[in-house]
Amino acid sequence: MADNGDNDSQHRVNEGDYVVLKRGDIYKAVQIQKKKKTVFEKQWFFLDNAVGELYGTTFEVVTGGTLQPRKPKCVESSADAKEAGTDNRNILDDGKSQKLTRDDIETLKEQGLKGQEIVQQLIENSTTFRDKTEFAQEKYIKKKKKKYENSVMVLRPSCRVLAMMYHGREPGKICHLRYDTLAQMLTLGNIHAGSKVLVFETCAGLVLGAVMERMGGYGSVVQMYPGGGPVRAGMESFGFPSHFHDTLHEFPICHVNALLAGALDTEAKDIDADSRQANGDKSNLTQTDPEKAESKECSPDTEDQCMETSTSTDPAADKEREEREKRREIRGQEKKVKMEEKRKKLAAAAAVLEGRNADGLVIASRFHPCPVLLGLIKFLAPSRPFVVYSQYKEPLIECYTKLREQGGAVSLRLTDSWIRHYQVLPNRTHPMLLMSGGGGYLLSGTTVATDTPKTGSTRGEEPAAKRLKLTETTEG
């Protein structure tokens, strides 16, 4: 994702880039580092030879863990495929049709035979291969290639690729968010360049990275995070350039109420005090325990007091004490620098949120979305979209009911995602046997400006007017 240079260099792998390795339906995100061993699907290799090659290139893993680009020749075993049976009813799967044993296959590997050559040997030593139908032969070859061919494809990270990687390997980390549901979230949230978007997610940074990729480095993104700090592992796998990170801000969710009330102090000495209280920090309980206080060892802050009680006059002990003091001072300075950086980030994010004119809101977390949605929707400008994802529909039904009661949102829609994969091949097109059971649920809507005093006055006057009319008719 380079910004300058010729167009060809943008599509080539460079050292330090984040890439996605693919073998079959399995993906893995890694960073290109020379002379670093990479383990993928129980096989290790080096990615040095991938530098300078085009994205989408397929490499063969040869002896020594080196990669070689596969030559662009698609030669199937057409000589054997010509002889095929009419049906498979007389084929017995008794395990005796293959003449090569496991030891023979290992010997072929030691001799340096590649995966395609080993597959050819298996075909020649199979007694039932020629009796199988043409479709069964292709299925057999595909299965053996997947097992014995040591090929790896290097892909450029993208929203679709990383979503498929997480959903296939660790769906729990992304709350079982499927890639088609993520695409609908970006569409319903109207994510585009130049907008101001609020993101609250606990999907390892995947949703945040997808939003930043759609915005293209223009606009601003505010990540609302729970806990002590934001999680951005998925976002870092995209390998965004530096100017993308300039548009990213972070704000702790525990300070939202203080910001809405206008009581947030960004110049406070300890900005994490509210965070510790909100997260139920029990450090005070441990400090007030007398038994634990007596048995507690000297902390780094009380090293001077501990060293003063020592009656040793050894020069080595004095040097060690001086080194400890220096380390303590360095740690104190580093802590001050980190606190100052965190205070600046908090102030910058608060300045973005104070206008309450955000253009979109995206929520996808393992927490109950109702209190989060009701708090963050106040930062949106009127006529702006919002979208909430949940693996289950019951929390979104509660959000739907609350929004209908308090107002401020129109076009509320609760939808579920469904997708089916098809195998498209000549004379054997059919749905895949294994597919995802559900893609979660989405609640989307549009904010509107509310005028509560006028609505309340009209509701109060209508019954009184009706009573006057009734009294007039009875007197007449």
Automatic annotation (TrEMBL):
Residue stretches of biased makeup (Polar residues): 276-288
Oligomer status and interactors: Heterotetramer.
GO biological process terms held by the UniProt record: tRNA methylation
Main location: nucleus
Family: Belongs to the TRM6/GCD10 family.
Listed InterPro entries: TRM6
The protein's name in its UniProt record: tRNA (adenine(58)-N(1))-methyltransferase non-catalytic subunit TRM6
Keywords per UniProt: Nucleus, tRNA processing
Region (Disordered): 74-94, 273-338, 451-476
Compartment annotation: Nucleus
Function of the molecule: Substrate-binding subunit of tRNA (adenine-N1-)-methyltransferase, which catalyzes the formation of N1-methyladenine at position 58 (m1A58) in initiator methionyl-tRNA.
Keyword Nucleus: yes
Compositionally skewed regions (Basic and acidic residues) per UniProt: 79-94, 289-299, 316-338, 459-476
Domain of life, per lineage: Eukaryota
